[in-house]
Amino acid sequence: MKRLCLAFCLAFCLAILSPAFAADKAKEDLPLITTGTWKHEELKRFKAPEAKQGVAADDEHIYVITNRALGKYRKDTLERVGEWKDQEGGPFIHMNSGIIHEGKLLCAHSNFPSVPMTSSIKIFDPKTMTHVGTHSLGIDSGSLTWITWHDGHWYACFAHYAKSQPATGRDPAWTELVRFDPEWRRTGGWIFPKRIVEIFGNSSSSGGSITSDGTLFITGHDARQLFILRFPKAGSVLEWTDTIPITAAGQAFAWDPVQPGIFYSILRSSQEVVISRIQESGMPRTDKSPEQ
What UniProt keywords are attached to this protein's entry (predicted)? Predict the structure, then answer.
């Protein structure tokens, strides 16, 4: 009888877990576009309880982001020197990523997993770690996951998720990168290549930046890869040009604004910030920092 119960439990567990394992394996087996010309070198890690969504960085500090809280860490000692937390029952729901722009920390925020999807940008003073403003986008192209500033325009990624499809009628293929003018008026939009969307799986793009030379770097939700894309000369599908294996598992990232090639990412499973160096093999270090 005990053997029968054990066999039944084992069969039940396999039935539950096998689809997840199969999905992960299918994502690993998807073909990647890679030239092998980029090198990723992990330098160090440190623990941060806020390491659930992403990171941002300025000249002296790393800002670690979770849904309703921020942690501020010195870059030289990795000491935690500041924090911000939403009040109990407050208006913050799901911060996804952040950038430093004109001396302010801007965090992409959404009401995920609620529908209709609404989005906003939360504005913080990084010196005092206080919330100083919000720019609401209301209902837009999806659920805002990341923003960046490039060549006088805002670029914002609006995600769609498989779990929301019954309510929205849209799967991750509807994820869109939208360009806005400085007043947040839409001026353009692009979607991601089909193979990258397949790697996203049930989720979407969690992090992204556009460097000063116009290169687009993005991450998914959990893939250990940094994808390199460029804007197409024609059409609306971004062009996938290369892939960099990384030790972090997706989520939002940041380039160091003063140390070319230094890359900050997170491991949400262990609540760690990962500090790495990324550069093209055989090439001198170049400025891959996003425009601030």
Answer: Signal
Assigned superfamily of 35-280: TolB, C-terminal domain (2.120.10.30)
pLDDT digit string, tens, across residues 145-170: 999 999 999 999 999 999 999 889 99
3-state helix, strand, coil in the chain (%, to 5): 15, 45, 40
Q: Do 149 and 121 form a contact (C-beta atoms < 8 A)?
A: no
Residue in 196, 187, 206, 64 with CA at minimum distance from that of residue 143: 206
Q: Are the CB atoms for 103 and 123 separated by under 8 Å? A: no
Q: Give CA–CA dist 268/116, Å, rounded.
A: 27
**Residue 211 near residue 229 (C-beta atoms within 8 A):** no
pTM of the model: 0.86
In which residue are the tokens 């999905």 written? 23
